[in-house]
Structures are given as C-alpha cells and as structure tokens.
Amino acid sequence: MAQQEDVFKKLVSHCKEYGFVFPSSEIYDGLGAVYDYGQNGVELKNNIKRYWWDSMTLLNENVVGIDSAIFMHPTIWKASGHVDAFNDPLIDNKDSKKRYRADVLIEEQLAKYDDTIEKEIEKASKRFGEAFDEQKFRETHPRVLEYAAKREALHTRFVRALNDTNLEELQQIIIDEAIVCPVSGTRNWTEVRQFNLMFSTEMGSTADGAMKIYLRPETAQGIFVNFLNVQKSGRMKIPFGIAQIGKAFRNEIVARQFIFRMREFEQMEMQFFVRPGEELKWFDQWKQTRMRWHKALGLGDHKYRFHDHDKLAHYANAATDIEFEMPFGFKEVEGIHSRTDFDLSSHEKYSGKKIRYFDPELNQSYTPYVIETSIGVDRMFLSILAGSYCEEQLADGETRVVLRLPPALAPVKLAVLPLIKKDGLPEKAREIMNSLKFDFQCQYDEKDSIGKRYRRQDAIGTPYCVTVDHDTLTDHRVTIRHRDTMEQERVPVADLNPLIADKVSLKNLLNY
Ligand code: ATP
C-alpha cells in the first residue's frame, strides 16, 4: 500500500514537471480541488475526448452530439431532484476539524473487513502451498467466517440507512464500528448532516430582480431538456442517443486525491432513449460496450471491474460503475444508469410541455426510458496516466520513466531530433517536421545529448522519435526509435507519414 501511495505521489509530481496538470492559481497557493491542464495535459485530454466522442457518434449512426449551456433555467434542478436530493452526508471530527463523507468512512470500513479476509487467505495459501483449497477455507475457517459475518451485517445496516436517508443511523454505525479520524485518531464526531453539492450564483442585476441559478452538477440535464429539439430536427427514431462533453461543478465535501475528485470537472455523458420495458436489455448492452471501450486502451483487462450500486439514485432502476485500479485502489471512473422515464416525465410536469415520442411502429406515444453512460474526463485522464506510468530499469543500470500511453492518445506523436546542431542537420530536421506537422502533433528538439532528448520524450509518452544524421542528407533515411521497445530502425523519410499514421490512428482503439 505504502508503495502504491509512493507511485501516486510520483505521478502527481510527474504531471506537474512535464506540463500535464498544475494546481489552479498556484502562485496564490492554489484553490482547493481545482486544477489546470498544461501543454501536454490538454493534448492528452483532447485525445481522450475525441476517443469517446468518435466512439459514440461515428460508431453509432443513432447517436448524435450536442453542446448545451452550463447555465440553465433554475427550475430544471428542481425537476431533476438536485435541489432537494443532491446531498452528501457529512460528518466532522471535532479534534482535527476535518470533514468527511459519512458514507465513504463506512465504505472504507467495509473494505477493511475485505482486506483482513484476503490477508488470512494469503497467509494460509502460503502455509499450505499446493494443497490449499481456497473455497473450503473461506467456508470453514472460524476467523474468516467471523469477519465475513461482521462485514455482511455492516453492509446490510449501511444499505438500509442509505436507502432510508437515516442520518442518525449513519452516525451510530460510525460509533459502533469505532471508526477513527485518520488525522486525529479520535472518535470525537459531530452528528451527520446533509450537504447540497450544487454551486449557485446570480444572473441579472439585483435591481431587475436577480435570479438564483446553479452551475450544472451534471451535463445530462442539458440533454433531457433538448430531447424534443434533437428528436424533431434530426428526425431521430427510438432507440437513439444524445452525447455531450462539458464542464460540471460540485462543491465536494472531501476533495482529495488530485484530479480524481474535483470541484470543477468535465463529463462525457450519453443518454440513450429506448422503449419502456426494453431498458434493462439496453442497460446490459451499454455495460458491455463501455467496458470494451475501456479495455481497448490496453492498460490491462484485470484493472477494470463492475461495481453494482447498493443504493440506487432516486431516478434509477439499475446502476453499475466501471472501476479502475488506481494507485489508491479500485475507484469509479464511469457510471452506467438505467434512469427510467424519471427525467423526461419530471420535465414534462415542471415545464407544462408535453415531452413524448410517437413510435410509428407501435402506433403509440410514450415517454421514452433512458440508459445513461456517464464518465469523467479527468478520472479517465488519471486512470490512463496511472496505467501508463512506468519506471524501468535499463540494461546499462540507468532507469527511465516512460509513459506507455496508447499512441493514439499521446500528446506528441513524434519528436524530430537532429543528431547535432550543425552541418545542415537542423535544417533537414525542420524540413521533415514541416512535412509532417499537418498530420501529427510534432516536437522539434535539438538541445542536449540524443539520450537526454529520448528520455524527455519517454516521460511525456511520445511513441516515436525520428533522428536526422549526416547520412540522412544523402540517403534520405532517418532512424526511427520506438518508445516501448527502444528499438531503432532506418526508414526512408518518404515512408514516415504512412508508417506513423497507421500506428497513431484512433482507428486502432475504435475497432473494439
Ligand atoms: P462519486 O461517488 O465518486 O462521488 P458519483 O457517483 O457521484 O461519483 P456520477 O454522478 O455518477 O458520480 O458522475 C459520473 C462520472 O463523473 C463519475 O463516474 C466520475 O467519473 C465523474 N465525476 C463525478 N464527480 C466528480 C468529481 N468531483 N471530480 C471528477 N470527476 C467526477
């Protein structure tokens, strides 16, 4: 665990050192849980967004995109349930003055029971070697049974408290489980209170009667309120989807863990409208499709898992998360929800406008049901960096830090490097770069030794380095070096474009 935390720290400083992510307003000592993306970060982020956008709108002829405004009519958030129910249960430790989400403290306690069980199993497995029968051990070993029973009892109690929004019970669980504050180490807790996560501001001058409006906490509502506009103007037939990428804002209580939990972040959401009664079939289909999208990145299939929700949101009849193994454990990167007809019906009620679909095949009108896929760009960014970051021991005893990013997502696709800074090599390198820059993000670098320049490119995940040497001037060939294998090959300058285009194309990922 300590080792993993170490990796996480290194990742955070790597992000800063190499222009991926900076703390916001850093010269003013930062702003809590707000971050800026640097020159390499923005390229990677744009590529992630492109991968998602194309997977939705190119691969599905019945999915189209929109870009709705962040500001929306305040009644929308009444209709969506966010004004009344977008709350987290918070609890403070009186000694450390630190604030926590009560549900997260209890989830961590559940994870501790799981860990203890796994440790018992690991120990026994080492002791018994080949002869170890894990299932039998789980079913019969007294200590494992005791922990499993405790875990189960806690889980049942926790789910009931969440579903009943029983704040006293959440507090009682924390007391009964003797959960301590990780900072002060004490159990001196306040009661549990609800905290609304929406930011608000005012629109219009006060003299005119300013209106309180919210910064959207999700992009989905912009899709729902445009359902009819898109359906009618695009003559869309159910089933069809609307995709959107945009900023969302949440006043998170516990905003730690770098860009995993931010107060201003970006979402990629797709709402898929289906016939009532067919939603669970589509839910299942999107679950599988989305998991394939993640695994296509090649970061390791074992790093992903589904986690079904214990507590369904007020609007959902099925929900699961796709979790990724971050340096701090398996964490949600995407939610897939079957949202029923809750949102469209509610907007119909609050707006007084009919929001129905006439299904020509059934010859009837109905309120469509919705499957939502909702993923955070920033969490995706973090998972990709965590899955790509690698410290490698080289044969010559040196280490190199390399980001093994999928080439299609790499901020820079190739670096063009003249071997030395004279003899016409820089001019030749510039000429090559000028012929490639229309197709790929290229970087020219002539400073320091070639080895140092390779390392700089490895650290930002550049898949190819092209070195121009004296022979290039006569044989029109260059050395291309592959990031992952560090292998080098000599290729004609004229072949560079098709060779690189093939390797860095998004098609390689989209073909999942
Ligand atoms: P969590 O339980 O971690 O707070 P959530 O279940 O509230 O997340 P959703 O409302 O389902 O999250 O939002 C969909 C996606 O948006 C999440 O899977 C996540 O990738 C992203 N997301 C949500 N909140 C944040 C945040 N504060 N910072 C960064 N990304 C976020």
Can you offer a commentary on this structure?
The two termini are 33 Å apart. Helix content is 39%, strand content 25%. The model has no long low-confidence stretch (mean pLDDT 95). The longest helix is centred in the N-terminal third of the chain and has 27 residues, at 102-128. The protein folds into 3 domains: 1-72 and 197-393, Bira Bifunctional Protein, Domain 2 (BirA Bifunctional Protein, domain 2); 87-195, Herpes Virus-1; 402-510, Anticodon-binding domain (Rossmann fold, 3-Layer(aba) Sandwich). The protein has 512 residues and is an alpha+beta fold. Helix 7 (142-163) packs antiparallel against helix 8. It binds adenosine-5'-triphosphate. Adenosine-5'-triphosphate binds next to strand 10, strand 13, strand 16 and helix 13.
Task: List the main descriptive attributes of the protein structure presented here.
Herpes Virus-1; BirA Bifunctional Protein, domain 2; 3 domains; 512 residues; alpha+beta; 23 strands; 7-stranded mixed β-sheet; single chain; globular; binds adenosine-5'-triphosphate; 18 helices; Rossmann fold
Q: What is the average per-residue confidence, as pLDDT, rounded to a whole number?
A: 95
Total domain units: 3
Largest sheet: 7 strands, mixed
Residue share in β-strands: 15-25%
CATH homologous superfamily designation of the largest domain: Bira Bifunctional Protein, Domain 2
Q: What small-molecule ligands were found?
A: adenosine-5'-triphosphate
| Contiguous uncertain segments of 5+ residues | none
* CATH class call of the largest domain: Alpha Beta
- Could you name the CATH topology of the largest domain? BirA Bifunctional Protein, domain 2
Roughly how many Å is the radius of gyration? Answer: 26 Å
Distance between the amino and carboxyl termini: 33 Å
